[in-house]
């Protein structure tokens, strides 16, 4: 109850600019919660899909991989879909890598969506608090200019209190939203890095499997050629 009473008095004595500051903070918190939930769910789905497809990729069962990833809208599924689709028509590693990089260009804007608003809201909140402070100080000096000498001290103290409330509110909004922005940026970067690592592992697995298959084919061809020469010599 004391906290509620303090907040009510704080807003009552802080002036008009505390209300837009509160609105800015609420919008920032809503964006932070929504982005945190999205990134957490996306990271969980990526890990689940990746754990399912790793054994299939290592065994070269790309049809089964495609069957799993085509049913998911996760980021890792999008990356793998691009890569597997390109494998059907491309023989060079660079072509497949370009296709997977193209998928990241589609995913990154989706993961960074609305996050950049937090830094803008933090700056707007800071400037709004400073504007409230300046207007409060202007009102303070205007009030004491026409007041009785005995009342000047109390009026000045009350007006400065209003100005400092705006400064404190602006700093609170800016600090919390900047911290939220840093947290989401770190979480987004971590997820994108994991997608890049997964794409590299996918490509390495594909290249190793192709080398094994091509090497095996060369060995079979050499053995067949040797058997033909032996048969000709016996004839």
From TrEMBL:
<feature type="transmembrane region" description="Helical">
    <location>
        <begin position="16"/>
        <end position="38"/>
    </location>
</feature>
<keyword id="KW-0653">Protein transport</keyword>
<dbReference type="InterPro" id="IPR050790">
    <property type="entry name" value="ExbB/TolQ_transport"/>
</dbReference>
<dbReference type="InterPro" id="IPR002898">
    <property type="entry name" value="MotA_ExbB_proton_chnl"/>
</dbReference>
<dbReference type="Pfam" id="PF01618">
    <property type="entry name" value="MotA_ExbB"/>
</dbReference>
<keyword id="KW-0813">Transport</keyword>
<feature type="domain" description="MotA/TolQ/ExbB proton channel">
    <location>
        <begin position="73"/>
        <end position="196"/>
    </location>
</feature>
<protein>
    <submittedName>
        <fullName>MotA/TolQ/ExbB proton channel family protein</fullName>
    </submittedName>
</protein>
<keyword id="KW-1003">Cell membrane</keyword>
<comment type="similarity">
    <text>Belongs to the exbB/tolQ family.</text>
</comment>
<keyword id="KW-0812">Transmembrane</keyword>
<feature type="transmembrane region" description="Helical">
    <location>
        <begin position="156"/>
        <end position="184"/>
    </location>
</feature>
<feature type="transmembrane region" description="Helical">
    <location>
        <begin position="120"/>
        <end position="144"/>
    </location>
</feature>
<keyword id="KW-1133">Transmembrane helix</keyword>
<keyword id="KW-0472">Membrane</keyword>
